[in-house]
Amino acid sequence: MLASVAIFTCQDVLTAYLARTYPIPFFMTIRYWFFLLFAIFIAARSKNGLRDTLRSRRPWIQIARAILLVVEIGAFALSLRYLELAELHSLFAASPLIVTALSVLFLKETVGWRRWSAVFFGMSGVTIILRPGFGVFKLEAILGLFVAIIFAIYTIMTRLVSKSDPFLTTYLYTAFFGSLCMTLIVPFFWITPKPIDWLWIGLLCLSGTCGHLCLIKALELAPASKLQPLTYLQLAGVTTLGFVFFGEVPDMITIFGAMVIITSGTYVILREGHLALKKKKEKGDKNSKEQIISQPIIKT
Q1: Which residue ranges make up each domain of the chain?
Q2: 248 by DSSP, 3-state: which?
Q3: CA torsion, points 205, 210, 212, 218, in degrees to nearest 10?
Q4: Which of 135-139, 219-223, 226-230, 276-280 has the lowest average pLDDT?
């Protein structure tokens, strides 16, 4: 899990550079093509084969989810043109809190007063970062919050399809329809990059594959609720690399707001894991693995 966090941190630095240099659909398309080839390779080698893997009980939700991820990744990259890495990731850290709030509406889950308190406390951290009414409010920061909301909806949809479709089906749908969308868009944005930048684009594609392999392996060995708090270490990583490569230094207000969000998010994640384990014990299903998808399989 720590390896995946380190890889995704480097991936975000590459995304920041490319987003500030090239049209976003251009390098997103190449990344999706690479992703599709990898997904097809994995599905073809599975015991069900490529054809059976494509069969979904909720195909329309799968398609909508894949398209939503395209929007989220594009908005994330666009945000990096206007926000610092640390500032964007501080807002993005609110996603688990938004997921908890939305799960009541879309998944009919029950959220107790402890988690609701953590959600409201965490969203106060978002307000601290946005700083409305203090003369330093950035309209671009709303785009960062939009990314967190879209990612939370994507997570909810991931939970919905996970109840009926296996992991590889979701993985393949994400790759195929995401690639299809980008292929239709890219002719309007295609340009020839500098020779050295092909290296960075290749590393962007490779980092996504390697990062997800580490993440998938980690989720095979331990519950998601225990692993996801480690993803907050990425904020420290992007803050450090943002300073090294772009000279970005977050102010103390942003850091304080981020700590409020991270504290609340970590509590919500651990609380959900505790409640899931308690529920399983009550059902007597002590030997089954925990399957809470609080971390979607595709990261931005």
Answers
A1: 2-283
A2: coil
A3: -170
A4: 135-139
